[in-house]
Amino acid sequence: MKTLNLNKITLLIALFFVAIAFSNSANALCVVDGNGAIVTVSGNSTEPVKDDTTIAGEYTAGDATDNCLVTPDVYRLNFYKFGLCTADPDLNDLSSCQFFFEQAAGVEVDIQKDVSATLPIPEYYIESNTYQYLYVQLSTKLGMKWSGRTTNTVDGSSGDGNGGTYCWTSNAGLHASTYVATNAHGSSLADSTQTMDCGTSEGTVVFSNEVLTRFTDANCSSNLAANGDKSTFAIEGTGSTRGIPTVNLLTSADAFATTCGNAAKIAWTTDLSTPYKVTENSTFAMSVKATAANSLEFSSDDDNSLNIIASGAPRIYLTVTN
User: Fold this and answer.
1) How far is CA 95 from CA 87, 88, 90, 92, 256, in A?
2) So where are the chain's domains?
3) How far lies 69's CA from each of 111, 292, 295, in Å?
4) Nearest one of 270, 257, 175, 272 to 215, comparing CA atoms
């Protein structure tokens, strides 16, 4: 067993051009013009934007839609635990896990595309072993800061007729992904609240916060599914990061969440296709998918309103080098 210097784990921003979402709904990057402005229709429409990806049996690149993905200027995540396990921890048994860090208050990180940083954590110990599972625990509160241009006028929180072709995140409140009046991090914004604004010049960009309150398709009048709304997704990733992800919602006390209101943390387990082999000489790099991490959600009514920016599930990977 060896003490590994904290500088051997760095936060790397990985550039992956894929959708990031808990749901199975199809989303893709917004279509932009030659100047990088998001292509929007002129006037009112129920589907004012287009995406750039074809998904067989669902839609074709260039189809009109009311949402599309963007890369945030800054993506704020708060990590509580990050480690490797020899046995499956998705039922909340972490007895087989070795952790790079466990922080009760979390380690808050502002993630930016093409920017690397060192995680502010103490020295850690990882025993030499073969690890089948990667385990990440992070807050359900996800912060997003974004600004951009559109090709035609879009209305935001300033109201009809006060919009423009500059848009930005404008409300720092808590938007619940599935509405509940009080979430684990505070009071939720009213479901109709717009967290985006638009105008004829650049505005003041703030962090807009979304709280992921459930994974399954249901409203918050019903309790979560068993084991913290446990959901398992299709295999993803490449090379040593490839595996099958499972997510659970936890309370602030690390028990399985039972309602939208007490879902405070996300427990993310990846069952790796190729287990990590850790030796005393191993070094580690943590990477997060930042590209196309957030969704611009336009009104589905016949207007030109941009309502909110929404977050998908942040994908976190580990690269082990021996």
Assistant:
1) 8, 10, 12, 9, 16
2) 3-321
3) 17, 5, 4
4) 257
Q: What is the pLDDT of residues 224-263, one digit of tens each?
A: 999 999 999 888 888 888 999 999 999 999 999 999 999 9
Nearest-CA neighbor of 197 among 173, 163, 172, 174?
Answer: 163
Picking from 204, 231, 80, 225, the residue whose alpha carbon sits closest to that of residue 141 is 80
Q: Match 């952790």 to its residue by tokens.
A: 99
Q: How many helices (H) and strands (E) does the chain have?
A: 1, 25
pLDDT tens digits along 283-316 = 888 888 777 889 999 999 999 999 999 987 777 8
Rg (CA), the chain: 20
Residue type, 216: T
Strands 208-211 and 174-176: parallel
Residue type for position 205: V
* Cα gap 299→146, rounded to integer Å: 18
Could you please report the per-residue DSSP string of 292-321?
Answer: T-EEEEE-SSSB-BEEEEEE-PPPEEEEEE
For 145-182, the DSSP string reads: E-EEEEEEEEB-TT-TT--EEEEEE---SEEESS--SE
| Location of structure tokens 């074809």 | 54
